[in-house]
Sequence to fold (389 residues):
Amino acid sequence: MRAGDWFRLTTASALLVVGATGCGGGTSAKGDAGGGNACGPVFPTDASSLAAMLGLVEARLVAAGRKDADFAAALGADADKLLAASNALQAQAVEAAAADRMIALPAAPPAEVPDPATCGVRVSALTSSGQEWEGAGFLTAGNLQLAIDGYTGDHTYAPLDVSMTDPSSGNVTSVVHQETQVALSLSGSRAQAVVTMRRTINSWTPDGASLGTTSETATATIDVDFCPDEAGVAAGTISLTGHGTAAPASGATPTTYDAQAMGTYKIHVNEMAQTSSVDLDGALQFSATGGSPADVAATFSGSYTDPADPGKTLQGKIEYQRNNASAADLDAMNTAIYSTVLLAATVAESGAKKKWRGGACVEVRADPASEMVDPNAHVSITGTPVRGS
Fold:
């Protein structure tokens, strides 16, 4: 879009800035004569609930990895109890960080992300052969809004620990340890939020002998350039990674899981300074060694045209390059590959729109910039609108 168009639109619509909690208006979808996709009503429009859905996707990847990497081999009979304590401690860490950043927590966990088939997403043939929604994904989406508004800097939160001694298992003592780091930056009009969460579980007998150790790291990164370029595109990326290791005290080979979901999105802005469509591209890799080895690789491409209800107009395609995993794992992958980039784009679009419609993306340069003139003199000044930083 030409700089002159941006100047005209942002100054003329100064009183029409979109509210903070909505995702803006949009156009009807092409091919939507049937009333939209069935998953449309399932997706919320407020930023905190969308962020929670992203955290839920992260939790599903973690759960699949723990199962496939056989964390029970390191944690023994208390595995379920200790993993539940680990989830609770991470939820506590998220609540503390969200309160510190004044990020609203949704009143209840979100609904499960809809099946791809109900959202206009097709899963291709292969080209070759609860409530633990709180996590890095949620915090990152919430913090992106702060980064867009100029709140930047790094923060490391005090570690959290829970110690448990279980008489029923011979007074075995276990310690769950949680660490959380948040980093926000704003360079020109590019905002970025990064959240890293680390968790460990260590167990010992009453005489101090180790029974096993697990460690997990989840890192989420979301960024967006909230000022559209001359073609009217505001672009951004997301990366959601998870890694876990289980080391049995028996000396057996440690088992691991690795998950990485990546995506890019392009927000197309029309001449009315409204979002006309959003293009999405994503990739996912998942692997595990242990009880149920897995090796999955897939890509996604798609778009939607209604930012107020992205699920209604989403169209896309998932293509698998490798699918060596259980049916349950593949179901989790199907959800993660399209929803990771969709949810990040929806949160980013909401925050970015406030900036470009508020005039943050246009600067007027006067020529001459300053000049001494006589009283009552007639002076010609040329104002040139240019893309802001």
